[in-house]
Design goal:
3 domains; globular; Arc Repressor Mutant, subunit A; single chain; Aspartate Aminotransferase, domain 2; eight-stranded mixed beta sheet; Aspartate Aminotransferase, domain 1; alpha/beta
Length: 486
Amino acid sequence: MGGSWSANGTALFRQIYLQVRSAVLSGALGPGARLPSSRTMAARLGAARASVVTAYEQLLTEGYVEARAGSGTFVSSDLIGLVCAAPKRGGAIAKPALAPAPAREFADFERAAAQTEGRPFNTGRTLIDARTMEAWRKLTHQAVRSLGASDLGYTDPRGLIELRQHLCDYLKTARAVRCDPRQIVITAGTQQAIDIAIRVLLAPGDEVWVEDPGYPLTHAQLLLAQARPCPIPVDDQGIVVAAGMRVAPRARAAFVTPSHQFPTGVALSMGRRLELLAWAREHDAFIVEDDYTSEFRYSGPPLASLQGLDQDERVIYVRTLNKALFPGLRIGYAVVPQALLSAFANARYLMDRQPPTLYQNVVAEFLRQGHFAAHIRRMRHMYRDQRDALAETLTSRAPEHLTVVAPDQGMHLVAYFKERVSDVEVETAAARIGIIVRAISRFYQAVPPRSGLMLGFSGFPRQLIIPAASRLAALVANPKQASRTR
């Protein structure tokens, strides 16, 4: 054991330190036990005395041992309450601590971890082309080279005013949103914006409208906040406001995806939009509008936002750049009514102090220089082609089994089964042949679920989509044969 380093590259003083510390914590060396002198320990281990001295000094600094003048080094006498009793011979291993009740509230749910899967037809994935990549690299290099006071210190928890100004200009033009830059709060994405909205709007026990079927993570967040989500059915015109008024007329809020309902893809009709706004006004409630994929509309002009119709500042408008650009960006934002702005910004401050400035600067320049609008135009054409390839392949290969709904907007489509089929079983079988789909029945709460598959098309080029869709169609048409011919 001579020398200063072990064979695995760990410094010898560190090994000695860890061995002695372990003996102290396990109770093998009890409080008051005398350690061998550094010279004796070095001789026993065949190590340099300097390594032992350094290890003892570290133990002394951290309080595991104490030096007594003229007597030597001893295990600290005040560790009685911290030391675990040594297990008895043949005794059971110590039982690990159980999670407390609040921790158990974080039940398993369908997490975005699955979205790290690069196989088709996973959802939430995006593509960027060479022009976007080059522009992003150039702007990132510029931002790094020009680091300033705002990057090295604290800034406004709402985000950089330059970015909020560019976002405000974009929203007014593209989404008919009523806003001022001061109303925009930068978040880490839609999920954080929704979390802040829940904290600001709701108390435990408050009733809340949620779409049924709907986004499962919003439902999970509401449950964690001890709110009472009330599932409201969705039809071909969006959330059924009349049903909400029957089920929970005095709900404090409604969480909706009006431009591209998740997961069905339908748009909330104008009549329903006006009904929803009237309900919020009459019952002193708020609406959280999750406008998650409105950039990608494939026929006709983009639908105006629900917030743009709101005359009473009852709508919190939530949006993300993570789907418009790429999920790793982790930048979203909310347009907040004036009455809620102070509380929303304060909650943002308490949760995460402020968004990181470096990427805010990059995004601001990306918007200012026109790269964002150009990127959206190019991706819209690409995604439409990918949507059509997926829809056409499934329709032509499994016409007797699937009804494929190609949406006018968004990044996924739904293929409904024509016969009674367990979409969960198909989801599992598809995974075995290397294809990721999501059973749509999982997104229902109270309404009888439909059987179908949600398939993302935005993250996969056409040349990958067609063969994968062909294999999926073969699985749907003949599950046993598809499994044999993988």
